[in-house]
Fold this sequence. Notes:
The chain has helices spanning about 5-15, 25-35, 70-75, 95-100, 135-190, 200-230, 240-260, 280-295, 330-335, 355-365; strands at about 40-45, 50-55, 65, 80-85, 105-115, 115-125, 240, 265-270, 275, 300-310, 315-320, 370-375, 380-385. By secondary structure, the chain is an alpha+beta fold. It has 2 domains: about 5-160, Beta-Lactamase; about 230-385, Histidine kinase-like ATPase, C-terminal domain (Heat Shock Protein 90, 2-Layer Sandwich), CATH 3.30.565.10. Strands 3-2-1-6-5-4 form a 6-stranded antiparallel beta sheet. Strand 10 (about 300-310) and strand 11 (about 315-320) form a beta hairpin.
Amino acid sequence: MNTQDFKRAKVLADLDLDYQELKSDFQDLSILAAKVAGTELSEVNFIDNYTQWTVAGSAGEFSQKPREASICNITITEDHQFESRVDLDLRFKDSSYVQKEGYKYYYGIPLKLNDEIAIGTLCIGGKTIEDLSENQVEQLHLIAKQIEKQILLKQKLRLAQKQALEERKLKRRLAHDVRSPLSGIAQLIELTDHSKEHYEELIDILNLIASSTTSVLQLVEDILSVDTKSPSNFESDSFFTLESLTQKLMDLYSPQAQAKDIELNYEFQPNALKFSRNNLLPMIGNLISNSIKFTETGGQIHLKLEIEHTQNTNNLSVLVSDTGIGMSAQQVDDIINKKATHRTGTSGEKGYGMGLVFVMRLCEELAGNFTVESKPEEGTRVKLIIPLKQ
Length: 390
């Protein structure tokens, strides 16, 4: 397969066309081409490595043939068009197209995307005519351009649908990650005694809320970076240490834990190593939010962070354990198999079944390791091992 064939095959593969479903897109234009030319035959064809696929035409039927048996196989190698008196052309005069079907004239236009690779043709065949007028040729090329535009529109539609799906996922991630801390802040404000007798307590609460709100805004920035950066380019301009990462997580998630009267504590060994943010807040934050959601009032959540040194790299070890309601073996398997399932929290919190699956995907994109252990009514332990970028 030569370079041009490879490119055409790649373009067609990227278009992912269902040839049998294209008749409604191109049938009218094909029939119009036959009327403009005054010929018995017109076709819209796509040609891959081995086959010519006739997706629309005056014959009205979907068909296919080996590309080497097709005159259009020559057309796709031309810049603008291929014209032939096939009844006189030594390459075609003995073909069934001439001998059995009675055609003596062919005119084909290569269909190109962005004037580059020819992926197919618009062609006409005549049994009585011997050439086309200048006006007919011009109109046929206009029809071919319209077919090319429709192909590009189908491609753009597919890309737009994919982008819309990714944006929908991003919005759900944002809602999932931001709803919980904001809800915690709201509940904390609602439960706070605003009387003058508790002025000092109120000041402490307001300071906590201010710190947490700043962290929420930072979380949004980190979540947005998930969709704007490739997995191999997640490094940010800012860095964490174990202490600053822990403090950021406590600022962010303490309000929602307090609002539910859950004890959120932490443990880390001081370490001066600086490492890239690498979406650590969305990952660990999702773990903490998930634990808060499925831990009953009065329960406990423990966060443990440490740096593990290996010969070739430094890894961040993250362990989030809780005294919550836990999960069944089937629920754990669903997470490992990336099956998102909906569950309602211990206080009736609405869930979307994304939390742990989302964490696992992010962890995998960073070449990390994700493990989860849980039993009903015995809590849950989730551990992440993430290679650090410094």
